[in-house]
Amino acid sequence: MSYDNNHECIYSIQVNAGKGINISARTFHLGQGDYLKIYDGKDNTAQVLGVFTGSAMLGLTLISTSNHLWLEFFSDAESMGEGFRLLYSRVIYEDSKCHKWDNVLPFPPASFSTF
Ligand SMILES: [Ca+2]
User: Fold this and answer.
1) Which entry of 47, 74, 84, 105 is 20 to 30 Å from 12 by CA?
2) Are 109 and 74 in contact (CB under 8 A)?
3) What is the rounded average pLDDT of the residues 14-28?
4) 43 close to 25: Cβ distance less than 8 angstroms
5) Architecture of domain 7-92
6) Measured CA distances, 20 to 10, 24, 25, 31, 66 (Å)
């Protein structure tokens, strides 16, 4: 099993106000050129907690300073991986949206679209 090429996925996670979010990877295997970017806030204007490629997130636990996390996953046109399964603490809300690029953008993309 693996994810598809040319995808962008946005994940928005929220917990109760006043709480932080612990996040760690149970599995994490990305192909060449693909990455997961984690923001410490409710959108992609927040501070970046980390950008993870390959198996780089394995063994790490990240802790947010607020009760929101925003994650962006990007896969380019070739070389897929198995993807990832993340564990979060205390989640009360989560949402995800993915789309396939209609036109393949140059990698790396100039910017992310928002949904
Ligand atoms: Ca790739």
Assistant:
1) 105
2) yes
3) 85
4) no
5) Sandwich (2.60)
6) 20, 13, 17, 30, 5
